[in-house]
Design a protein that fits this description.
Blueprint: H1 2-24, H2 28-48, H3 52-77, H4 95-115, H5 134-153, H6 157-164
Helix pairs in contact: 1-2, 2-3, 5-6
């Protein structure tokens, strides 16, 4: 349990720091690399909480496709050689108080939402089967939906009911 908490705080810290560095970094290539690091750390958090399928899909889709596409676009546009004078000017700091005000409002809204949340154990009366993983459950739902839709297309509705009442595959 201590190792689990340590890795949770470790990956959470990396996710927060890399997300901040995405916006703070002046070099766009570095921002994309920090974005990739952020996606990897959030994917690790998903895997730690037991959502293996979601973590792997996030790695494949976001890191494997979106972030690499961002990196290629940034490298092809050659943005790193352009001068970025927007951050160096002192006249463009009028947006900072507005951003701080919006951030404070969102922060207090999140606190209100979290503070109003109550756990009610009587509402969670579902049986949890420990032998079935998330990926196995997702596969069962997908195969049952596929078979049901194919049975409806074939006008064989009894086959659909027999298949849906079966146990885990």
């Amino acid at each position: 349990m201590i190792a689990h908490a340590f890795f949770f705080y470790f990956f959470s810290f990396i996710a927060v720091v890399s997300a901040i560095m995405v916006t703070v970094s002046k070099n766009t290539v570095h921002s994309v690399f920090f974005l990739i690091l952020d996606f990897i750390s959030i994917s690790s958090l998903f895997i730690m909480i037991g959502a293996e399928f979601l973590g792997m899909i996030m790695l494949i889709v976001y890191v494997g496709a979106v972030a690499v596409l961002f990196l290629f676009v940034v490298m092809m546009l050659n943005v790193a050689k352009q001068k970025n004078t927007w951050f160096k000017s002192s006249t463009n700091s009028a947006h900072i108080p507005i951003g701080l005000l919006v951030s404070i409002i969102i922060f207090f809204e999140v606190i209100i939402v979290i503070g109003g949340w109550k756990y009610k154990p009587e509402l969670s009366n579902k049986i949890v089967i420990s032998d079935v993983t998330n990926t196995h459950s997702i596969g069962n739902v997908l195969i049952h939906r596929l078979h049901s839709s194919l049975s409806i297309i074939r006008n064989d509705i009894t086959c659909c009911y027999d298949w849906c009442n079966c146990s885990y595959i």
